[in-house]
Design goal:
It is a single chain. The protein has 2 domains: about 5-190, 2-Layer Sandwich (BirA Bifunctional Protein, domain 2); about 195-240, SH3 type barrels (Roll). Helices cover about 25% and strands about 30% of the residues. It has 7 helices and 13 strands. Strands 1, 2, 3, 4, 5, 6, 7 and 8 form an 8-stranded mixed β-sheet that branches. Strands 12-11-10-9-13 form a 5-stranded antiparallel β-sheet, with no helix packed on it. The protein binds biotin. Biotin binds near residues 34, 53, 109 and 126. Biotin binds near residues 37, 108 and 127.
Amino acid sequence: AGIPLTVLPEVDSTNRWLRARGSGGPEMVIAERQTGGRGRLDRGWASPPGGIYLSVAWSFEALESGPAGLGLLVSLHLAETLRALGATRVGVKWPNDVMHEGAKLAGILCELSGDPMGRCTVVVGTGINWRADLVGPLEPGREAAGVADILPAPPPRPGLAGQLAAAVLEACQAYPDGFAPALRERWPALDTLAGRRITLQLANRIVTGEVQGVDETGALILRTAQGLERHLSGDTRVLPS
Ligand code: BTN
């Protein structure tokens, strides 16, 4: 896709860099490493050389599912691209992680400027680990995976970065018309949480239940002792089965 691309050897955070430009997009930046990579929920994102750190600025007429919904679609497109490259055990973990056998391969941070019910801009940041041992330990119970460890024949890093960047752009282009059909028809096959017992950390409480899937708005459907619950955000942890 012919959109402006900046490649930086080093930056604090590609998301912050693009937001500081105030660009309405479409525009993309890729960094070789980040010194202050940011994750969801105020976490950091370890960004050693080798990993792929990319951010896309994109404007929407409206973003009714919110930035988190867009993140679902991006994670789905990334997982499908990696599977097409031969990483057949890659899946998605609501809300927007790309996983390989319980370990996190990639994460997405979508940051919104403006009102999601009207014209707005989102910076979609994607971090993809290259090798798990370079990332270092995450929090206890959270493991990392790397693309170089799991692809049968890892393509050269620039080619791979290009394919993953294309997946992010396709997801932005597919929104909003492709959103509900993708969640209905493609998400279930890659959903690593379906049928699993999890805890969901909400702003002020934790709920436990069995994941039934996601609905067409991107909400997680959880069967709890109180019945079916629908949640639009939160942090999930899989309980041992
Ligand atoms: C998460 O899983 O918590 C989201 C991680 C997102 C990391 C990417 S790396 C490129 C972009 N720049 C950042 O500072 N963060 C995102």
